[in-house]
Amino acid sequence: MLPHPSTGPPRLLDRVRLALRRRHRSLRTEQSYVGWIRRFILYHGKRHPDEMGSTEVVEFLSYLAAERNVAPSTQNQALSALVFLYREVLGRELLGLDSAVRARTPRRLPVVLTREEVRAVLAGLDREYALIGGLLYGSGLRLLECLRLRIKDLDPKRRQIVVREGKGDHDRATVFPEALHDPLSSHLAGVRSLFDRDRSKRLPGVELPHAIERKLPSAGSEWSWQWVFPAPRLSTDPRTRIVRRHHLHESGVQRAIRRAAVQARVHKRVSPHVFRHSFATHLLEDGSDIRTVQSLLGHRDVRTTMVYTHVLDRGPMGVRSPIDRL
User: One of 33, 86, 137, 308 is an active-site residue; which one?
Assistant: First the structure.
């Protein structure tokens, strides 16, 4: 919670939180930005950022790349946090950042499961985890996209799932797996019972997007806005301190999938995101157009989707080894 105005001028990190919330940034972004700003301050001996500028930012970014050996995405995240601090909170522009040592971008091929491996891992999942795994593979969802699905986002009649506020804050539609229609219907019947119990206890409704919460404050108690995968227990909203029902936490899904992969003796590094990689690769193997796959995945650039052409079951770039023709 931010301090009450009567306690005096807010501290720097509270000003950062307030600026992020005014711009409706997610809780994860807020936690990430505050964490990087705190590390930046500690790195420079707890000097106030107002006393520093581009030179100190370049030094910190170079330290992350050269000494901490962070990934390029991690360094970019730190840079975004510091640019936000100076531009939006301190009212200053940072110049000369091009001189920072850049983290090297390694070229990595995605881990992809065979269809038999997908089937084996999914068979090792139970309860809602089996449905989540099925949606990750059957619809190409990212884990948080799946966990943040609401009842209204499922449209089996049109055979589509609408992903709201996906990566880059974009909406998109992806395929609804017909094989999951009956299991999802049974699951939602249980979710409805939980919803009815919560309403009978007059519990606060689910968290809503900011604009909807202002326009339709009671929508959080409506069935269509409920989570498809609600958590079994109530939790405290870290921003509002309201005790309500959130969606399942991703850590439980991650553990369940890793455990299922070990039990299935799949000797690959299996995570929830591997199902998304497998979804894309198997669609291409089945002859789907790469632009269609790009749209279903929500990639902004088709070059991101092109990486899956390197891991088709026909070998890299669809080439067979000449020794196989001897």
Answer: 308
The answer to whether residue 2 sits within a structural domain is: no
278 located within any domain: yes
The one catalytic residue in 17, 148, 282, 299 is 299
Q: Which helix (H) or strand (E) holds 236?
A: strand 235-236
> Is 167 part of a structural domain of the chain?
yes
Judge whether 276 counts as a catalytic residue.
Answer: yes
Phi/psi-derived region of residue 237, left when phi > 0, alpha when psi is between -120 and 50, beta in every other case: beta
75 lies in the same domain as 199 = no
Number of domains in the chain: 2
Residue 267 annotated among the catalytic residues of the structure: no
Catalytic residue among 167, 244, 259, 310: 167
pLDDT tens readout for residues 63-109: 998 899 888 889 999 999 999 999 999 999 988 888 777 777 777 78
pLDDT digits (tens, 9 = 90+) for 115-149: 999 999 999 999 899 999 999 999 999 999 999 99
Residues 91 and 177 in one domain: no
The question of whether 299 is a catalytic residue gets the answer yes
If asked whether residues 194 and 93 sit together in one domain, one would say no
Residue 273 annotated among the catalytic residues of the structure: yes
Q: Which of 86, 129, 142, 148 is catalytic?
A: 142
Domain span at residue 184? Answer: 115-310
Give per-residue burial for 147-156: e unless 16+ CB within 10 Å, then b: bbbbbebbee
Q: Quick one: tokens of 97? A: 């950042």
The CA–CA distances, whole Å, from 315 to 145, 285, 310, 311 equal 31, 11, 7, 6
CA distance 105 to 100: 15
pLDDT band at 6 (very low <50, low <70, confident <90, very high): very low
